[in-house]
Amino acid sequence: MKNTEILTKLNLEQKCALLSGAGTFTTRGYQKAGVPAITLSDGPNGVRKQAGAADHLGLNPSVPATCFPTAATVACSWDPALGEEIGRAMGEEAAAQEVSVLLGPGLNTKRSPLCGRNFEYFSEDPYLSGKMAAAYVRGIQSEGIAACPKHFAANSQELRRMASDSVLDERTLRELYLTGFEIVVKESAPKTIMSSYNLVNGTYANENAHLLQEILREAWGFAGAVVTDWGGSNDHALGVKNGSTLEMPAPGGDAVRELLAAVQSGKISEADVDARLDELLTLVLDTSAAVQKHSRSFDADAHHALARRAAAESTVLLQNDGILPLAADTKVAILGDFAETPRYQGAGSSAVNSLKVDTVLENLAQSGLQVLGFAPGFDRRGMADAAKEAEAVALAKQADVAVLFLGLDEIKESEGLDRSDMKLADNQIALLKAVQQANPNTVVVLNAGSSLETPWLTHCRAVVYGALGGQAGAGAVLDVLTGKLNPCGKLAETWANRYEDTPAKDNFAGAGRTVQYREGLYVGYRYYQTAGVPVAFPFGHGLSYTNFAYSDLKASAEGVTLTVTNTGDRAGAEIVQLYVAKPDAKIFRPAQELKGFAKVPLRPGESRTVVIPLDDKAFRYWNTQTDRWEIEGGQYELRVGASCADIRLTAAVEVAGTDAPDPYAGKTLPHYKTGSVQNVPDAEWETLLGHAIPQDTIKIDRNMTLGELNHSRSPLGWLIWAVLTALLNASYKKGKPDLNILFQYNMPLRALAKMTGGAISMGMVDGLVMELQGFWIIGLVRVIYEAVKNQILNAQMERRLRGA
After folding, report:
1. φ, ψ for residue 704 (rounded to 5)?
2. At residue 59, does pLDDT exceed 70?
3. CA 785, chain centre distance (Å)
4. Rounded Cα distance, 671 and 231, in Å
């Protein structure tokens, strides 16, 4: 152990106390033992250190900081070097604000386009996610503080996120949902990782020995601290035993007593406590020293410029018939509410109090365009407004080009709330159609943190996807529209034609707690290409104002080299993608998978030799029979292209196999062999899982959510449920979700003891459970008894700890 000298100065109670937070974003400190307290802070696209009363949902004001484009946006740059620059800037701002741990980046694989938090995550592809996230971590930690990649693992939806059980086969878990984290751990050595709220195959992620010990620590060599998501601890003692280091936010004395009792009963050992505390002390001491030495200032203008460049390089030109770029002095009508009030980040714990926010209207003077005027055109909340539409149409008629800014409003994309569909609001589509009738030269700019259905594409000549571009995104989009910058972004997720085409449509955010990942390996392009399902825009798609030619491919099992030439008259950058396929595979697999990429800047007429290496992940698959990574030997195709659907060059290579037995021998898995996984029968799903489908029943226990209290046997429970539901519905009607109510609605009862700073104990929760089970008087008496007991024990413990 690294910190034996400090450990010997602490008694068991003090050790246990250190393993949970003192405040919403602070750890405990013991100055007598040389242990300082440190501050943790959101978030993944900018620092959200709260200025006043702290909360974990971004409800209260925070210290101003640079709001960079979200992860979903920067992933479209396919540029780890850019990600590292952003990470370094965020790390600098965090350290300047005396933050030791920055809670990000988020890199969960995007299983469904409806996940409300997809704007915080990079991609549907774990290789791209892992490479981008590793770059962020290296940048953040170059400032001496800790990055905290999240949420580990298989965290794919917001509905019942603190009590849902992600049920999936081991191969899918390893290949899709853990590979990104594996890349991060091995390539950037994060000092912390955040465990997710959900269960994984029946065990909470934060106390899951398979995840935290066998895979994270033993197989990958992670030596840092595991931090719970806020309120994400279920059994604190099991968490400590199985690899969870720090329980956040501030569960109070009850958590300390839980660990003490667990050691005394033999449930865990003091050695388990010491192991976790050694991890925590290393984190605290290293980052605290770095923060103390760090400057308290940073160059806000330079960071704003970086945010603008990041937004520009991440902008994706989805469609263009030649109308873009707009020539100088083009007479334009600027339409759409988002031009005046931009959507530039998501809602929830990642929301940054931006130092400043550019708008399209404010940046038009520098665009070189002749602006005839602006009309909002639509009601942001989706209400029909004939007057606004008429105003926009009238303005469009006067212009050479109508530029229409559309997107998702705040209620559509938020932590705590999954999207209900993939559609633009009806009033926005109606405006687009009306504007196009008035002026066929219509260009659409889209702001959204996730993919959309686009049946309206025929009503515009070009579509520019600005995603959620951060505080400087508006200026970046104008630079792309006018050709000051040549767009080079490419999609990091597939855009399906319809939600009904997506692979997990019947198994995402359903009625019960159990979330069945029946689609297995077939997520995103892995599904669409294997099953032959047409899409609107494929993974890796993105247009340019120039053209690129690919030639001279040379390939081996170690990688490829090729020549890329800019054949147009503008400088630009091409993102070259390398996919691996095995058409004659005996072990079923997706049609092809991304295994390498390179961003290549080129002047007009310039050619460059591009080298894309292949690593140990290029040909492997997880074999559930041997319980390890294996390689099926034989011939593979290395496919190089401009997207997964635009393959330019192909070469065959021979790869030596590991001669492992076929884990599916004798098993009937027709849907998984063809990739047609939307309607997998129960028997086939159970064959892949290797066990029966878990029963999905609501239990009246510590993990019943407040939104499930209508299933209790208590009038009190029914009343609480009715009030919460009414408040939630009222917030929807206002067009702005109440994040606090949303969090409470999906919160399990146990979280009352984890999120109230020690005011509520688990004994009180157990009394409440008795009340909800129908033992009304006994339950309430126990709540009162446990409340008095908790207050007395907390006061006694704090006196002992203060006297230490």
Report:
1. -70, 130
2. no
3. 42
4. 39
Give 32-42 pLDDT, tens digit per residue.
999 999 999 99
What is the average pLDDT across 562-568? 98
Strands (DSSP E) contained in 524-618 are: 535-537, 548-556, 559-566, 572-581, 593-602, 607-613
Strands of 548-556's sheet in order across: 548-556, 559-566, 607-613
- Report the C-alpha gap between 283 and 368 in whole angstroms: 51
Tell the CATH superfamily of the 546-665 domain.
Immunoglobulins (2.60.40.10)
Among the listed ranges 252-266, 401-415, 666-680, which one has the minimum average pLDDT value? 401-415
CA distance 260 to 18: 12
Query: What is the share, in percent, of the chain residues with pLDDT greater than 70?
Result: 98
Largest CA distance in the chain: 83
Classify domain 307-493 by CATH architecture: 3-Layer(aba) Sandwich (3.40)
Please give the pLDDT value at position 721: 94
Tell me how far the alpha carbon of residue 684 is from its chain's centroid. Answer: 30
The predicted-structure confidence for 381-393, as pLDDT tens digits, reads as follows 899 999 999 999 9
The yes-or-no verdict on residue 533 having pLDDT over 70 is: yes
- Asked whether 506 and 460 are in contact (CB, 8 A), the reply is no
Q: How far apart are CA 634 and CA 681, in angstroms?
A: 32
User: What is the signed CA dihedral for 322, 325, 331, 336, rounded to 10 degrees?
Assistant: 90
**Alpha carbon distance 263, 16 (integer Å):** 10
- DSSP percent split of the chain into helix, strand, coil, nearest 5: 35, 20, 45
Instruction: Provide the residue ranges of all domains of the chain, joining segments of one domain with +.
Output: 28-50+62-293, 307-493, 546-665, 706-802
Residue 56, pLDDT above cutoff 60: no
Q: Quick check: helix, strand or coil at residue 333?
A: strand
Strand partners, 710: none
Please state the rounded mean pLDDT for residues 340-359. 92
* Other Cβ atoms within 10 Å of 301 Cβ, number: 10
- Catalytic positions are 229
Q: Does residue 169 register a pLDDT over 80?
A: yes
Question: Which tens digit of pLDDT belongs to each residue from 451-500?
Answer: 999 999 999 999 999 999 999 999 999 999 999 999 999 999 999 999 99
* pLDDT surpassing 70 at residue 58: no
Q: How many residues does the chain have?
A: 804
Q: Please list the residues that pair with 26 across neighbouring strands.
A: 39
Integer Rg of the chain from CA: 27
Q: What is the pTM of this model?
A: 0.96
Task: Report the alpha-carbon distance of residue 360 to residue 676 in Å, rounded.
Answer: 44
Across 73-87, average pLDDT: 98
Six token digits for residue 74 = 């920067």
Residues 737 and 347: beta-carbon distance below 8 Å: yes
How far is C-alpha 480 from the geometric centre of its chain's CA atoms? 26
Has domain 28-50+62-293 been given CATH number 3.20.20.300?
yes
With H, G, I as helix, E, B as strand and everything else as coil, classify residue 383.
coil
The H-or-E segment that residue 137 falls in is helix 126-141
DSSP 32-100: GGTB---BEEE-TTS-B-BSSS--SSS-S-B--B--PPPHHHHGGGT-HHHHHHHHHHHHHHHHHTT-S
Q: Which helix (H) or strand (E) holds 273?
A: helix 270-293
Q: Which of 338, 502, 486 is nearest to 422 (CA)?
A: 502
Sheet holding 331-335, edge to edge: 316-320, 462-465, 442-447, 401-407, 331-335, 370-375
> In the structure encoding, which two tokens stand for residue 178, read together?
């853990």
SS (H, E, C) 652-678: EEEECCCCCCCCCCCCCCHHHHHCCCC
State both tokens at 415: 């932590």
Name the strand (E) or helix (H) holding 334.
strand 331-335
